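**User:** Everyone, produce a chain:

**Assistant:**
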Amino acid sequence: MKFDQDLDAIGLLCPLPVLKARKRLKSMAAGEVLRIQATDPAAVIDIPHFCNEAGHRLIETRSDQTPQLYFVKKQ
């Protein structure tokens, strides 16, 4: 999957992956894709919830691997 920016949240625990994603997405243009790499077990719940609340689109999740990968399209 193509992405415009990459966020390394490996080793960070809740709520840091979401907080860092929020900050990074603010600086991105609408339509750009952020790849988030995370190892926090709560990320599988937190990142989709964040996208739903913030209005971004979670276009792909790969939570069956380490690190987990999330691809978020800024709306």
